[in-house]
Amino acid sequence: MRLLLLASEGGDAQRRALHGLLASARARGDEVRMLAPDREGKLLRDAGIPIESWQPGGLFHVLRSIGALRRALDRHVPDVIHALGWAAGAVVLGALPASAAARTVVTLLDPLREGEIPKAFVERRLPELLRRAAHVTCAYETLAREVVERFGVAAEHVSVVPYGVAAALPPGAARTGDDGPIVGYAGGAEPERAWEIAFDAVASAQRTFPAAQLRIAAPGSAGTPLRAYARGRDVRYDVVAVTDAGATAFFGAIDLLIVPQGRDGLPWALLQALVDGVPVVGADRDGIGDTLRALGTGLLVDDDDAAFAQGIVHTWSAIEGARREAQGRRAAAIAAFAPAQVAARMTTIYDRIAAAATSPIPLENDD
């Protein structure tokens, strides 16, 4: 199969989804081409995937990506086009002729919130674009339901497909100490509002458990502004630079993970904690609530610092039971989010689209 991947500027969830899709396609022996902004391109070029990248930046970014897409189709006519993210979907379905829609799957990972997406686009253009796609996959159930109910996409053309996460810790390797709580928060790249919830929640929990401390996983340079933000706050904390390879050091050294609602509708750290058997206190929003309810584990709270502080105290007060529950649901989490399982779901969708779409993709718009 010939697969063309188009990625827009995205966060941790999108990069993990990209890595999973590429690994799956290469394992099958598919011929893969990819268009991505420079940041994603640099991460993936070493994998040997042909990538055409561009510098992100407003309308110029969109126009250049359309040009890159058309140049790619001059050289490589795919069986399936996979657009990762709403912006990538807008480029594919907005720039190509209607016949290309029969070959296109659009993946949505994050909430479709006005403010982060232009309101006029959400109200007028996005519904039409999503209805044109051959298939829409969503990272979690609430988002899939919104695509059907709000945007009018037929339910049979929408699937829930999270991104895959592999366990970082061997069985029984989660922290078992009683000198905490050490509260993990993987939000170094999130907005300051999420930082405030994390710091204030731990500060409040310290009134009950003075030894409480915050351990923050921050990608790369995100640790510098985070430390500046934390200066002068009366909270014990440290910042750990976490890569995929370093996940073991972080998740193996925390008692519980707190997951406020941030940019990602289904934060990677939530899935990593679940497959590693680490107790979770999460905001009852988006994919966080969907996932914890589906697995029957963790503690859901309101998305504010007082509720998270209560969640920390509640979980640490019964930490042995919380650890047993998290370890007990670990196998179910691994089954749900194992990269091979997730890749198999996408492969089924790819094969169905490729079999159904028999007409070529003309570059001239046929709308």
Describe the structure.
- It contains 15 helices and 13 strands.
- It has helices at 12-28, 38-45, 58-75, 86-95, 119-132, 141-149, 192-205, 223-230, 247-251, 268-275, 286-295, 305-317, 319-328, 330-337, 339-356; strands at residues 2-7, 31-37, 51-54, 80-84, 104-108, 135-138, 158-160, 182-185, 213-218, 237-241, 256-259, 280-283, 299-301.
- Helix 2 (38-45) links the parallel strand 2 (31-37) and strand 3.
- The protein is elongated, with a radius of gyration of 21 Å.
Rounded mean pLDDT is 80
Distance between the termini: 27 Å
The strand line-up of the biggest sheet is 3-2-1-4-5-6-7
Structural class: alpha/beta
Give me the count of strands: 13
Percent in helix: 40-55%
Our count of helices gives 15
What are the main properties of this structure?
alpha/beta, 367 residues, 13 strands
Brief characterization of the structure:
With 367 residues, the protein is α/β, with parallel strands linked by helices. The protein contains 15 helices and 13 strands.
